[in-house]
Task: structure prediction
Amino acid sequence: MPIVVNSNASATEASFNLSKANDALRKSLSRLSSGKRINSPADDAGGLAVGYKLNSTINRSYAVIQNSQNALSYLQVQDSGLQTVGNILDRMSELRIMAQDITKNSGDIENYSKEFVELQSQLNQISRETFNGISLFATNTSRVDAASLPNLTGVSDTTLSLAVGDSETPGGVPVQYDKFGRNLLTHESGVQTNGSVLLNVVNLQFVLSIGTTALGGANNVDLGGLHNIQDGDTGMDAHSGNVGTTLNQNIGADRFIDRILDVNVSQFTMAIERLADMRAENGAEQNRIMNAIQMLQSNVTNLEAAHGRIMDADIALESTRFARQNVLVQASASMAAQANQMTNVALMLLG
Result:
């Protein structure tokens, strides 16, 4: 091997190896400190692209799980309301039977009817319950002018309830019609003939109709332009009967007695059967959503495992690599120092 002064190939090679070892050591250190195998696109461009896609899918899946859990909470609150409705219907049917007792005088029946009326009011309150501002039972609400409804036809698959929209009587229920052909009746309203009403389509309305329908005569509201509200299969006329313009009519014991005695026990049976169907539907939806959540959670688990295999660093492997590169760096640095001393041999020969 010639001895030269102007160049030092050994030192150059040692420096190159030291640089490579330093780069490998830096990469291992970066992976160990971050816990990720891919810290830049240069590490694995294809793997980084797949990892981003998987991460996006995982985030969306978590959002869907959250939405599903909110829907489950909604159904649970709704079922709680339905359970309360069932308890109220049981008590109302019990009161109706007790009111038939021939040993009870009018005062006793009036006392039963007062509780009956309060339970009606509670049913109406339940129908207006919300979950985060979303109605638990109403499916659609729109404001219309009462005088602009001369005919409503084809109502065969849902229940239509006309509720007072006048600010002076919030929450009143002046007119109601359901698909099973119950009476079109009014009570507890002070809206005038030209007043506006709310047209509500309520899923729970048939069950709640016991609380608002067939429980009194049309004594307080002039129905004006409302004519021939018809079912898709069976027609029914709307009548004003005993019309008054205000709410100043007195409600005495006879009215309370009529209120409870006007309800047939069969109505409670039908309402409870419908309520049972609704709770069954609610339970089926809860089970469906819970299964969907479990499936999503299983998918997320598998996606996270796939994402980890691509993006995460193997700490055991990287620790071994780090130790090896650390030794190489030290060895390369030592050899570079030795190579730099080789030019001293030329000085010794010249001296």
Observations:
- The chain has two domains: 9-35+313-349, 53-141+159-230+250-306.
- Confidence is low (pLDDT under 50) at residues 141-203, 210-256.
